[in-house]
Design a protein that fits this description.
It contains 14 helices and 13 strands. By secondary structure, it is of the alpha/beta class. It is globular. Bound molecules: nicotinamide-adenine-dinucleotide and thymidine-5'-diphosphate (TYD).
Length: 353
Amino acid sequence: MILITGGAGFIGGNFVHHWFSRSDEPVVVLDKLTYAGNPLTIAAHLKSGRATLAKADICDREAVRGLLQQHRPRAVLHFAAESHVDRSIHGPGEFIQTNMVGTFSLLEETRAYWSALAGDEKAAFRFLHVSTDEVYGSLSETDPAFSETTPYAPNSPYSASKAGSDHLVRAYHHTYGLPTLTTNCSNNYGPYHFPEKLIPLMILNALDGKPLPVYGDGQNIRDWLYVRDHCEAICQVLQKGRLGETYNVGGKNEVKNIDVVTTICRKLDALRPKAGGARYEEQITYVADRPGHDRRYAIDPRKIEREIGWRPAETFDSGIDQTVRWYLENTEWIDSVRTGAYRDWMDTNYAAR
Ligand code: NAD
Ligand code: TYD
């Protein structure tokens, strides 16, 4: 079996779905169930008994140790993190705690568990660390895309804490021989995405008739990857990745924020037209920029294409179509995440903009 940290979150939850579409191997999800974790995301697999959920903090070494001893996984896939840049600006402490101290705790307990394995079990064990392209900092419009050798230059507390965790993973391979793999992926989107992030926020605000808050001039560029393509990349790196290596994951889908928002608006115009012929784009509102806002991210995926043979299945057009339709159809999940705590966050981040 495999152990997944953060498996009740956006990417981890999609990963659980993806895993069971290609394998029967059981999964244990270790998740603290912060505001971003939602058991409903993986409810079908919990009900079927193929996945088990252990509510625990990766910083709690005793809990992590107990789960490793109890379930004896052949791999640990580490998705758990504080993941939202704007939250890291308002309160960086949790990011240092979970992303750096938590990754350290998980590495220490995994190292102890792996060291006690023998023979084939030890040789086959893997620790796969899920990271982000944001560790490389910001590109100008003409800079080449991020490769695995681009120097780290994180600009937000979020990306700095992820960079710290990447360095720890690297050090545990070099120093202790822990069989690690790291993936650095670009922006994901798709089902079960918590609506504090750009794409789900815009879909839900549009449907609610609320302003669509575009930061700064809306010209910032992100390299969007459909979440199931990322999940497939992780499966393939787990299977075929070279130990100690890092792999950049991206689908060559660079889009300006304003174009992402207008694409969503036009999809909604077609799928859920507003009364009287009004258009969703009329709700777009430019608001104060994010402090330290990275201008452009772009991934050079040639290493994962060459060594692993991975390629994305979705284009931005096909992925955004599926995503908008999913948000139109899954009101139960949406209602479950738009709790009081969500409304508090919306006030914290947007009221003063
Ligand atoms: P998310 O915020 O949706 O989910 C994070 C999950 O981790 C939640 O289920 C949460 O409850 C859990 N968690 C948080 N702190 C924890 C702790 N201390 N102990 C145990 N569980 C804890 O994040 P996501 O978007 O699914 O991102 C998953 C991983 O992928 C992160 O490591 C992130 O840095 C990375 N990543 C995300 C993106 C993206 O676009 N979302 C892109 C590249 C890489
Ligand atoms: P986000 O989804 O938070 O991802 P990240 O900051 O990790 O790339 O934001 C994506 C882009 O959208 C980023 O350039 C910031 C911008 N953005 C807005 O313009 N308005 C918003 O309300 C949000 C949440 C993001």
